[in-house]
Amino acid sequence: MKQLAKLFLVFAKIGVMTFGGGYAMIPFLERELVEKRSWTTSEELMDYYAVGQCTPGVIAVNTATFVGQSMAGVPGGIAATLGIVFPSLVIICVIAGILTNFADLPAVKSAFAGIRVCVCVLIFNAVVKLWKKAVPDKAALALCLAVFVLSAFFNLSPVLFVLCCAAAGILFTQWGVRGR
Amino acid sequence: MIYLRLFFEFFKTGLFAVGGGMATLPFLYSMSDTTGWFSHGQLADMVAVSESTPGPIGVNMATYVGFTTAGVPGALVATLGLVTPSVIIILIIARVLQAFRSNKYVDAAFYGLRPCSVGLIAAAGLLVVKIAVLNTELYAQTGVLADLFNLKALLLAAVLLLLTRGIRQTKKLHPIVFILASAAAGVLFSF
Questions:
Q1: Which B-chain residues 95-124 have CB contacts (< 8 A) with chain A?
Q2: I need a surface site. Which of A63, A116, B35, B141 has the fewest CB within 10 A?
Q3: Would the CB atoms of A158 and B75 count as touching at under 8 Å?
Q4: What separation, in Å, do the N-terminal and C-terminal C-alpha atoms of chain B show?
Q5: What ipTM goes with this model?
Q6: Average pLDDT over every residue of A29-54
């Protein structure tokens, strides 16, 4: 029980320090889990992170579940996961509660109109960053463009694309199209 | 029963969104279309707040959408829905970690899933561009092509692109800096 509480608290701390998630999280994980507590090694952490990236869901959550379960089994995985989402729950509920009261002020509307432009640029930058790793050859490029066009112009569920592309990845690999 | 639906929608998102927090974005747009719980514009604002607050961005967006839809219990239900598939899948994979990492079918499936994720996120980005930079309503009224583009917004976008991609000294700055600067620009130049 004590260990579960500790897992919860350490991952809540990591949740507070993680701004934006993803790669920003690695240095904090290293410091909290490897250097300060020796709960895991750098190599193991990179393994967890790599698997966390190529399994569904939020990478930070996947990594937390992994570390928690390696420390204390299934309850450990759950405690670490609840820990990492706890700060988000509190902080976002407070901010969302405040913002809804001020959403109709002209100044707030103008501020968010400016922020939306910034969100476009941030999403664009995220796409460029992912692109470098995700599109290694022409077959992947074709897949990416097909998904972009179909999803931009037709109202189709993203689930459909995910299932088709997983199948396409396996077929392309078997047919030898991959890598060309 | 809104909580059950919220849980189910976010369970689906957590199960199929591959490639981290931003990968949940296309699912949230699809959710906006099918449920009508929140608008595309609201979603763009939620992305901004989620990027500027502590915590993984995917979790923040789920919490925010849940809160907007059904208050604090909604936030809790949406977030639990999002992480439940992760927990189940990771707990299974943890037992067969080596086999999973070296399985050729898993590797092949992810070869297809990664470009899929990029395409979906880019298409979701286009929806934000439509709200932030284009005046589709004004254009529909006047039919003048120049009215379609919001010039102030285009200018801001160009400056931000330069700062986040072109200039070495500002490239590494945290996104929150650019978000705050854009908010200030929005107020100063009354967007």
A1: 97, 100-101, 104-124
A2: B141
A3: no
A4: 39
A5: 0.85
A6: 83
